[in-house]
Amino acid sequence: MKSDPENRKKNAVVFGATGLIGKELVKALLSDVSYENVTVVVRNPLVVTDLKLSQIKLADFSKLPELKGKLRSGDWFCCVGTTIKTAGSQEAFTSVDLGIPVAIAGLAEAAGAGSLVVISSIGADASSGVFYLRTKGEMEKEVREIFKGKLSFVRPSLLMGDRGEFRLAESVSAVFMKVLGWIMAGPLRKYRGIKAGDLARAMIIISNREDAGLIYESEELQRIIR
Questions:
Q1: Residue 15: enclosing H or E segment and its boundaries?
Q2: Are 98 and 139 in contact (CB under 8 A)?
Q3: Average pLDDT, the chain
Q4: What is the C-alpha to C-alpha distance for residues 205 and 202, in angstroms, rounded to an integer?
């Protein structure tokens, strides 16, 4: 008897699994019965024990190309990202938020990944006068040029959750969202914050859509999880 493709167990590959979204994504994938293997590429191993979980330690992500041929096909997720403050310079920020997703796109294309979902940012635009948004837009452009499979970018607004580090601006914004987020309706809806766990669930839903679109703005992400 031939196996039913709809019931076939799937593989997932996650980059950025130790970050705010990555942790929630891995947790959601491990609890999802449709996935039988979840592989994470991390600098520091996750403190998680699960038979479905495989961890590949890579201290230097500039060496990602060395993983070519060592990763499974399946649903791929890129949750990599930093801040200019954490990176230390615009050049270092670019190497992380542009260079790493582009390298991942190359690995995904070589592995024949069924889908690739990449976290970008609301307002990403390669022609923007704002460095952060321009970098995100350039990242999207380069990833599109490399990965020819089912590709989706998610552009969330404020991300809410425990990052394990203090960011004053995000902390103040998160308090505002909890108290007054309800007033952000209509055109302002896309600026509402989104919980890390909700974004993770939305990414899995998007990955499994047959009609996956290229860009998912923050407002669309809100609709998906509702």
A1: strand 10-15
A2: yes
A3: 85
A4: 5
